[in-house]
Structures are given as structure tokens and as C-alpha cells.
Amino acid sequence: MKTAIVTDSNSGITQDEGKELGVYVVPMPVLIDEAGKNGERKVTQYFEDISLTQDEFYEKLKSDASVSTSQPTTYDVGNLWTEVLRDNDEVIFIPMSSGLSDTCKTFIHYAESEPGFNGKVFVVDNQRISVTQRQSVMDAKKMADEGKSAKDIYDWLMETKMQSSIYIMVATMTYLKKGGRVTPAAAAIGTMLKIKPILQIQGEKLDRYKMPRKLSEAKQLMIEALKKDFETRFKDLREAGKMTISVAHTQNLEEAEIFREELRAAFPDVEFTFTDPLSLSVSCHIGPGALACTCCIKY
Q1: Calpha distance 170→211 (Å, rounded)
Q2: What are the pLDDT digits (tens) for 254-278?
Q3: What is the rounded distance in angstroms from the CA atom of residue 30 to the CA atom of residue 25?
Q4: Are 9 and 97 spatial neighbours (Cβ–Cβ below 8 Å)?
Q5: What is the Cα–Cα distance from 3 to 151, expressed in whole angstroms?
Q6: Contacts 24+ apart (CB under 8 A), 27-30
Q7: Which residues have a Cβ under 8 Å from the Cβ of 23 and sit 6 or more positions away?
Q8: Are 166 and 296 in contact (CB under 8 A)?
Q9: Which of 11, 18, 193, 229 is exposed most, by the fewest CB atoms within 10 A?
Q10: What pTM does this model have?
Q11: Distances from the Cα of 114 to the Cαs of 105, 109, 295, in angstroms?
């Protein structure tokens, strides 16, 4: 039984990296509504890592353009699944968390309702995004290479879906306000007080965690949050050597690399895996300058 692994670009895996790893990556659509040459509004659809780079995305985000992400179409994904199934018996598809988008639910229904995919394509809703989603892809590929079936891989990913945490420090409240996640008044007060909110993802939606004012304070709070996770929810997994730590960021690589070394010093017994840009689906809501740390189970 030959099982292929498919994910989307929210995992942070580029098209070139996908080819090197032997996995398939669905590019996420990005919609940019901006003023045209004559002042009229124009909406253009781009595809992450194909017709839109990270730098181009942030250039648009910082302008007066309205930037949002969209779902890939069932037509495009269905064509990819069909192509992949020509050389494979089964497919594991690992999209972004259903807590952050309806994409996952759309493709669960599609796989179950189409005779050509039912029983052959397994869509995983294991509540992952960015580096935690990448870890799921790496785990799935390792299991597939060991000869495990798509059902076995699906079952493990679903059984372990809540065994991860993400903490994100937001550098500015501008984009939270633009996306309607905070009121203009709250954003104004937060900006005046130089608040750098920390958000968290515990398997579902993006929620508020803490409201520090300094970068150093924010990093310490995130380290303390991971420490608490390792001493409580993930104590046994940490002792068994089954947890990993990663860092993610939005146009903030230099600080991400500093934070990586601070995390390594704080948790020398836990494997460090990735230092990646955050997914554009998250970045469009929080803007540049963000810094995140995660912990996640590994296979």
C-alpha cells in the first residue's frame, strides 16, 4: 500500500521543499483588493509561493490594500488528488485547522461525497497551523515511509491533535483592528500603552492570552507558558522525548533566531525543529513583526 502526503502552504512548506520532501503542497489563494491606476478598486487573486512571495505579501499588507486569504477550490484540489492517486493507493491530506478556516470541513465533505475519493483520501482535521502543521506533515511522511496505511496515519494524527500549543506576540494592534478582532478604541488604547498582546492557539481559534508591554516581557511570558505546558499537559510526553519546540514569525527573522536560542537554553532536553515564517492565513490578521513559539508532539 503506497500512501501520499498532501498539505497546503499554511504548513510553511514551499513548493520546492515539498518536492525535496516528497510531499504535495496546495498553494493557498490570497485576495488583494487595491486601488487601480484610475482609482477604481481591483481585486486580484494570487497563490502563495507561486505568484506571491512573502515580501510581496507584506508590501501589500502595509499599503492601503485589503488583504485576505481564501479557500483553494475543490476543482483544483480534486485534480491534484486525482493526479496523485495515479501513482499512489491512498492520500493523507493535512490542511490548516478547522478552527481557523472552513477549508478543512469543505474537503472532508468533498472526499467523503466523491466516489473516486471516498475511502482513498483521508482529510485530517488535527487543529494545526504553521510549524505545528509542518510537524504533522513530517510525522505523516515518516509513517507512510514505514509502510503504514492512510487509516493508521489518520488515526494517530487525530488521536494526538490536542497535543500542541502556539503562543504569538503581536507587534502592532493595527491588523487586529483592521480584521475586526479588536475594536478601534481598544486598538488605540493598546497602541498608546505600547501593548504587545500575546495570542494563543490551543487546538481551536486564536484567543487572547496575555497583554505585556515589552518584547522582553512577552518572550518571558511565552517561555513560562511553554514551561507550564511541559509541567502539566505534556509532562509525560516531554519525559518520553516526544515533544518538539519551534519558532515562527512574521518578517521578524532576526528576533526569531534570538528567541530560538533563548528557548534552547530554557528547554535543553526538548528537541528544537523549525524556525519558519508564519502562515499567510494568520499573518494577514496580525501583521509584520510578530513572534511565536510552539510545542508539539512528534511521532
Answers
A1: 10
A2: 999 999 999 999 999 999 999 999 9
A3: 15
A4: no
A5: 10
A6: 27/72, 28/69, 28/70, 28/72, 28/279, 28/280, 28/281, 29/69, 29/70, 29/71, 29/72, 30/57, 30/67, 30/68, 30/69, 30/70, 30/280, 30/284
A7: 4, 5, 6, 7, 13, 137, 141
A8: no
A9: 193
A10: 0.93
A11: 14, 9, 36
pLDDT at residue 172, as a whole number:
84
Closest to 163 measured CA to CA, from 15, 6, 295: 295
Helix (H, G, I), strand (E, B) or coil at 32: strand
Per-residue pLDDT tens for 170-181?
A: 998 777 766 555
| 278: DSSP letter | P
Report the alpha-carbon distance of residue 31 to residue 41 in Å, rounded. Answer: 12
Q: Is 90 exposed, middle or buried (CB count within 10 Å of its CB: 0-12, 13-18, 19+)?
A: buried
Amino acid at site 46: Y
Integer Cα distance of 275 and 253 in angstroms: 8
The rounded distance, in Å, linking the Cα atoms of 226 and 232 is 10
**45 bridge partner residues:** 31
> What separation, in Å, do the N-terminal and C-terminal C-alpha atoms of the chain show?
20
Cell match 521578524: residue? 252
